[in-house]
Amino acid sequence: MLHLLSGPSFSCSYFIAILLASHMLLREQWIRAKYERNEFEFIEKQEPYSAGYREGFLWKRGRDNGQFLSRKFILSEREGALKYFNKQDARDPKAVMKVETLNATFQPAKIGNPCGLQITYLKDNSTRNIFVYHSDAKEMVDWFNAIRAARFHYLQVAFPGASDEELVPKLTRNFMKEGFMEKTGPKHTEGFKKRWFTMDDRRLMYFKDPLDAYARGEVFIGSKENSYTVLAGLPPSTQGYHWNHGITIVTPERKFLFACETEAEQRDWIAAFQRVINRPMRPQEYAVEAHFKHKP
């Protein structure tokens, strides 16, 4: 589907199989691309999302008022950034999102639109969420593919020795788990508060509302070799929680206490944490851990 990924060393169908594995919208557009628009047969038809530049309007959720308003977006592979503008004729962008930390994942249920896309990037080492949609499914999928294409080109430069098959999983990612839990503060004497949690690889973020632009706090989850552990339950002296299924995350600095509403949710969260903790840390993740800014 992307001519930049075709060739003897890379299977285009392999790329598409990974791309479409988890989302019906993407699957439908893949079928239309193959059988209606003949994009596999005619490479020039892939240009709208693989040319390294894309410009258009998306409905973006306001950071403070929650309203979706039309905003101009520009993705420039040459500049290595995705930008959006509050006004059509504005010269300066409202935000510049570096392709290096850019991620996109479809979130129709969370956003309340079948074409809803959540875009994340790092700003001052903290995650910034942007929620967008478009009424045309093809347009939204083209933006998604354009982001992936820009990420692919960036990764080719950043990891020159890596194969295409090694780079594909790094293009975009779905969150490992999301949902509500209760949490308490660092002293463990504060009352537990209900928060929306998102597990994005080794970043555990919590929000007051699932559509918040910024997390109230972020926790780095390292590996067991570096003294990170997940335990079922809470310390015996813990008070102030309403949900009875506790989880304790042990890090080198402190313990984080959470509570789930059901036993099934507790099992799912522990499994997600365990998958990350059991995975050895890569060299670049040590740098993330060293510079991680935790918000209590």
UniProtKB/TrEMBL annotation:
PANTHER family: ARF-GAP WITH DUAL PH DOMAIN-CONTAINING PROTEIN 1, ARF-GAP WITH DUAL PH DOMAIN-CONTAINING PROTEIN 1-LIKE PROTEIN
Keyword terms: Cytoplasm, GTPase activation, Metal-binding, Repeat, Zinc, Zinc-finger
Protein name, per record: Arf-GAP with dual PH domain-containing protein 1-like
Broad class of where this protein is predominantly found: cytoplasm
Domain of life: Eukaryota
GO molecular function terms noted in the UniProt entry: GTPase activator activity; phosphatidylinositol bisphosphate binding; phosphatidylinositol-3,4,5-trisphosphate binding; zinc ion binding
Gene3D superfamilies tied to this protein: Pleckstrin-homology domain (PH domain)/Phosphotyrosine-binding domain (PTB)
Lineage: Eukaryota, Metazoa, Chordata, Craniata, Vertebrata
Compartments (UniProt record): Cytoplasm
Organism encoding this protein: Mastacembelus armatus (zig-zag eel)
